[in-house]
Fold this sequence. Notes:
By secondary structure, chain A is mainly beta. The first copy, chain A, contains one helix and five strands; from the N terminus they run αβββββ.
Amino acid sequence: MAEKPLDIIHKSIEEAVLIELKGGREFRGTLKGYDIHMNLVLKDAEELVNGEVVRNFGYVVIRGDSVVLISPNIR
Amino acid sequence: MAEKPLDIIHKSIEEAVLIELKGGREFRGTLKGYDIHMNLVLKDAEELVNGEVVRNFGYVVIRGDSVVLISPNIR
Amino acid sequence: MAEKPLDIIHKSIEEAVLIELKGGREFRGTLKGYDIHMNLVLKDAEELVNGEVVRNFGYVVIRGDSVVLISPNIR
Amino acid sequence: MAEKPLDIIHKSIEEAVLIELKGGREFRGTLKGYDIHMNLVLKDAEELVNGEVVRNFGYVVIRGDSVVLISPNIR
Amino acid sequence: MAEKPLDIIHKSIEEAVLIELKGGREFRGTLKGYDIHMNLVLKDAEELVNGEVVRNFGYVVIRGDSVVLISPNIR
Amino acid sequence: MAEKPLDIIHKSIEEAVLIELKGGREFRGTLKGYDIHMNLVLKDAEELVNGEVVRNFGYVVIRGDSVVLISPNIR
Amino acid sequence: MAEKPLDIIHKSIEEAVLIELKGGREFRGTLKGYDIHMNLVLKDAEELVNGEVVRNFGYVVIRGDSVVLISPNIR
């Protein structure tokens, strides 16, 4: 399976990530953790709607069920 | 998996949390319990719509299936 | 897990509860039973839409899949 | 778990029941059977929309996935 | 469980059935097979929208996930 | 279970099939493979919207979760 | 099962693929990995809406739950 999705997520721990949820909302922050359901933990996160920051979170747990995509900064 | 989502939730027991549900509703209250489905128990909770308190609950059990995110007050 | 969601529900047996379903409908009645899927049994239940009673049920089984929250009267 | 949801359904076999589906449609008929997914079998059933009978079924199997609530005639 | 839903479906093999899908579409045809997910096989099937035949199928496999109800011709 | 749904799909390998997805989109092509989730592989497939070909695919894997029905050409 | 869906995906590793998500969004990029839930990893990906590139991603993990179809470039 080459580079498994969860391995890519694992490598992104402590890195900046972009998370997109169903309905088009986005979160940017430092990935602190995850589990096999793709539930995610972000630190120092900001929520963006249409590219504008609308809220800040010190810590936020996002349910995997709501997640559409995760983009890490690795290249 | 670094800081697992359920560990973050566990650490927030007896702390103030913000819960967001599908459809944009929010609840604030003291987290009293949870389970692996992310079903949550809040005490002295208030429901907010567009930032306004619309209802108060002594105790409320929220089904994990409806939860989008949980933000604890830890930093 | 402190106070597990199903334990809170269990403690509410024979007590008055408020149930909210997806779509915003509410039921009030005496909780008679439940199972691990959060399927619920209410007795002498009334359904409310926008706070108005629209129907009464002697007994009603509500599928957990439709449930958003359960608020018992314990404090 | 006191009166389990499936026990209440079991006790309603051969009794008149009201079934409500997602989207607000209702069925009334004699409950002939069920399974653990809450798939249901009704006999001599009528479908109601806004309280009006719109169709009759000799036998009908309803998928549990569509069911919101079941109200038996026991009190 | 008296007459289990899948038993009723099993008895309807080679019989005419009415299938209703989510969104209100209907299929009529001869039931040729099924499985535990309520995936169904119909032969010589017609699709109806608002009671009008809109399409014919020699054979069609319908995913159980889309099925709301199945009405066999047994009485 | 007479003619099981997956057996009908299996018999359609290398045959022309019509696939309908949620939302009413259709695909026609040669069925090359499937799995128990009803994920499907089509070759030389065309996508149709309202009966008009809108796209062509050399190979396409369709997730079973999106599939409503599969109609093979066997009679 | 002839050419299983996941085998087709496996053969597309390091190849250009087109991914379509629920709601009609598309991604094009190099497939780097996948898992049995059809979670996918794309590299050098572009997101298209109505055929126009709207965003670029160095790496992106797409949740299988959002995926409708995957079209590899093999013929």
